[in-house]
Amino acid sequence: WVIGVGAAPMAVQVTYAPLDEGVDTATLTVTSNDPADPTQVSSYVGDAVRYGTQTDTIEHSQGGVVDLLFAVDKSGSMTDDIDKLMDAAPALFDALSARGVDVQVAVVTADDGCINGTPYIDSSMSSDAQLDAFNTMLNGSYGTFTEAAFQLMLTALSRTSEGSGAGDGDCNAGLLRAHADLALVSVSDEREQSPNSWDYYVEAFRTLKNGDDDVVFHAIAGDFPSGCEGNEPGVRHYEAVVETDGIFLSVCA
C-alpha cells in the first residue's frame, strides 16, 4: 500500500482460525520506508471457546457375509491374554448374532495352518457348541510362527477348498467363501514376525477376494508406537490395520 503524508489510515484485517480451545497470541509486523520509525509491531490475543457440540449419526446396514479368522500368539507371555479372549467370546458371538451377520469364525495357531477341531464356527451351531469349538481352536498346537500372524493366516487360507471334503491339502475346507468379505484379526503382545513384509501379506490376502475393500485387518496388540505394560508395540500389525481401514485395540486393555 502507498499511504501519503496526512492520508487516511489503511484498515488491515487479521483473521484468527484456532485449531483447538484455549488462548493464542500472535504479532503483526509492518515494515515501511519511514526513515524515522520503519517498523511497527502490534500484538494480538485470541481466546478460542467451543461454540457447541455436533453429533453425527451414521446408520449402517445390518447383516453381511463375513469370514472372520483370528491368528493367536500362544507364546508363554500370552497365557492370561488367551484366557481373556475366551472370556470375551460369548459377547463376540452374541454381537454377531444380533446384527444378523452370516459369519464363519475360525482361530489358527498351528504352523501348518489347519484349524484345530472343526474348520469354522457358524450360526447353525448352538451357543454352547460355538464356545466349545472356539475353545478347542484356541487350544490348538503352535510352533515357529506363533508370533507370525500374517504367515499363520495366509497358510490357513491356502488350505481351503470351497464345497469340498477335507483332505491333506484342504484341512480348512469351506472356511474361505468366494462371496464373503474377509476379516483378519491378530492377537499378540509381540511385534509381528512373519518372514515377508506386512504389505506383501496384505496384497496376498487381497488377491483372494474380488477387491481391496473386501479385506480388512484388525489387531489386538501392544500399543503403537511405544508398547504398554512391558509388551512390545504392535509393529506391522498396526501398518496392516491402517492400510485396510481396520481397528487397532490395545492388548493391555
CA-to-CA gap between the ends? 60 Å
Segments where pLDDT lies below 50 for 5+ residues? Answer: 163-168
Strand order of the largest sheet: 4-3-5-6-7
Shape annotation: elongated
Report on the biggest sheet. 5 strands, parallel
Percentage of β-strand residues: 15-25%
DSSP strand count? 7
Mean pLDDT: 91
- Label the structural class: alpha/beta
How would you spell out the order of helices and strands? EEEHEHHEHEHE
3D architecture notes:
With 253 residues, the protein is of the alpha/beta class. Helices cover 23% and strands 21% of the residues. The chain is built from 5 helices and 7 strands; from the N terminus they run βββαβααβαβαβ. It has helices spanning 79-98, 127-138, 149-157, 198-207, 237-243; strands spanning 22-31, 39-48, 65-72, 102-108, 181-187, 215-221, 248-250. The strands form 2 sheets. A 5-stranded parallel beta sheet has the order 4-3-5-6-7, sandwiched between helices. It is elongated and about 95 Å long. The model is unreliable at 163-168 (pLDDT under 50).
Summarize the structure in short.
It is built from five helices and seven strands, in the order βββαβααβαβαβ.
